[in-house]
Hints:
Blueprint: H1 14-26, H2 28-35, H3 46-62, H4 68-81, H5 85-100, H6 107-135, H7 142-151, E1 177-178, H8 183-186, E2 195-196, E3 200-205, H9 211-224, E4 229-233, H10 238-250, H11 261-269, E5 276-280, H12 288-300, E6 307-311, H13 325-343, E7 347-352, H14 373-377, E8 380-385, E9 395-403, E10 411-417, E11 422-425, H15 428-462
Helix pairs in contact: 1-2, 1-6, 3-5, 6-7, 9-10, 10-11
Amino acid sequence: MESLSNPSFAEHGTSFQEKIMQALLSDHQWAEQMSEVIKIDYFDLKHLKFLSQKYFDYYTKYRTFPTLQLLVTIIRDDLRAGTDVILRDKIVEYLQRIKLNPDMGDIQYVKDKSLDFCRKQAMRSALEQAVDMIATGQDENVINIIREALTVGTTPSIGHEFIEDMESRFVHIVRHACPTGIRELDDRKVMNGGLAKGEIGVVVANTGVGKSHFLVQAGATALMNEKNVVHYTFELSEVSTGLRYDSHISDIPIDELLERKEEVIEKYKGLDLGRLIIKEYPTGSASVVTIRNHIEKLALKNFKPDVLIIDYADIMRSTRSYDSLRHELKLIYEELRNMAMELKIPIWTASQANRSSAQSDIVGLENMSEAYGKAMVADVVLSLSRKTHEKADGAGRLFVAKNRAGRDGLIFPIKIDTAQSKIRTLTESEVVELDNKKRESEADMKELLRKKWREVAQDRKVV
C-alpha cells in the first residue's frame, strides 16, 4: 500500500488552521476527541505547531487542557528566552487577535472538517499497518488495529484514571466567574469570585424584599467588569429596568434620575463598560426556547452575552405541560442550567419564597415556593429576608442556602437600598446601631401601649 506523505491542514488555508487552535482552547470536550487523532505536524504554520505542542504536552502531563490565559503563562518564559523573534511576534499577534475576537463564526464547520480529516488519517495509518502485518504473518493483530482506528476521536476519554491522572487533581483551575458585587459573597472561600461559567444562581425571597434589586446588582457588577449582559424582564418594563441600572451605576437615587440626567451621562463617560441588552417579555409568555432564539438573533448582530439575568424563572413558560406546577418549574430550571452549560455563561435568576416564610428570620431551601426540585438544579441558592418593621431602615439578612463552589449556611446582615438597587453587608457598628434602634422602638411602642392603657383605665373610672 502506498503511504500517504505529509498530510496536513495546509490545503484549507491559514484562517482554517488558526480556528482549529482557537477551538482547542475554547472547547475542551472537542479537544479530548482531537487529542486521540491529531498530530502536531498536521499544522504547517510554525506558530501553531509551537502552541499546539505546548497545549498537548500540558494535557499529557496533567490530563486537563490549559485555558488561553494559562497557555500564555506556560509559553511566556519560552518566548522571552527564545531567539526566534519572528516566531515570538507571530505568536503574540495571534494570541492578542483571538483574545480580542472570540467569535469564530463558522467554528462548527472547522471542528467537523478537521476532526474528520484526522480520523481519516488515523484509519489510513491503521490500514498501512494492517497490510504490513498481513505481509509478515501477524494476521491476529489486524482486527485490533482496525477496531482501535474506528473508535479513536469518536467520544471523549473513558474517564478520570484515579492513579494515572493524579496530577490533574492538583492543578490550579482558573475559575472564570462574574462577581456579585458583595465582597463577602465573592470571597474565595464562599463563591470563589462569583458565579462561574455554566452555573445557575438563584436568589429566593418574598414579594417586595429585593429579588429584582439583587439581579440588577449582579448585572451591573458584570457590566462594570466589562462583561456583556442580557437582562430578561418579565414584570418590569425595559425602561424601568434600565433606570435601575442607571441608578446603581451612577449612585443617584432612582427618583432623582430625571432631573440629574446630565450627571448620569457624565458618569458613563468615565467608565469602561460591557454592553447591556434589556429584553422584556410578558409574564408567562417566554420559555427557554424563546430565550435561545433571542440569543441567536443577537449573535447575528455580533453580540455574545457573558452573563444572563432572568427576572425571573418562576414566571416563565414551560416547554412541556404537566399536571403539577412543581414539575413544570423543575423543568424550566433544568433547561436553564443546560443552556448555561452549553453557552458556557453564568445565569442569575430568582424564585418566589412561600407565604409561611414572610416573617421568618431566615428563608431556607424548604421555603422555595412550589418546587424544592429547583434547589436541586441550582449551583448557588441565596435567600433574602426582612421583616415588615425592617423595611424602613433597609435592614435584612442574606443566607447562603446552597453553594457548590464553597461554604454555605452563612448568614450576612445586609442593607438593601431599593433607591439605587444596591445590596451590601452591614458593618459591626451598623448592626449594633440597628439593634439599639430596634430596642428603642420596642420601648417606645411599649410606653405608647401603657399610655393608651392608662387613658382607657382613666376613662372607665370617670364613667
